[in-house]
């Protein structure tokens, strides 16, 4: 499977640290930034609509692997996905005009342009994944001083549709005679979690869909803006990042959830931002953060 296809699959599942090994957090250095004279962008969203929250089963593992377990999993999970998608119809009916690719391109390009000298800016995100060979060829063709920026975004309902969760990755590549896609010059992952809406299931979906899906539209746009803002922040080569308190959050997955520990670096009335021990940034509702002792945090624990 190609790297960017893997990245898309990982975003669908939950994020990089929950699945196969992917690129690790790679800060943007002053040396790298100084070598960038111009940068092109490739903002990617492979999906055309919000994905439903589906609790997948894993009978295969319980049965010790094998074809029978896999067939059971596939059949039951397909039925669950179909049922979940059908339940989202009230929301789908209200957002037929929504184009999140344009929103992402607008927000991300503005943020990236404040950090990098962008060129060839497009007003909508892409829908086609670049294959490894194609991406490597593009990187090799970069002239001295040229860079390529790739972003990938996935958005989905979680926690019985009470939460909107988005995951975005960002890569920067500079020219190289032997580029390694798994080792970009910059890489990070950005998570956004909305406050919990409704009591779950159809009740939450109906609230997301109410009044022309006003709540869903505003929250999805907020996720794009907040992600863009923190992407811009993260691409600073010098920053005075202090820990306000150690914290732990829960990242829902298709099967279970993942606990992430780190430093709370921003604390507002509605949102907190946590720098995970993996370097990733999590923009979440304040009530989603539980205090925890973290070795890298010296205060507020």
TrEMBL record:
It comes from the Bacteria. Keywords: Signal. Residues 1-18 form the signal peptide. This is Lipoprotein. The lineage of its organism: Bacteria, Pseudomonadati, Pseudomonadota, Gammaproteobacteria, Alteromonadales.
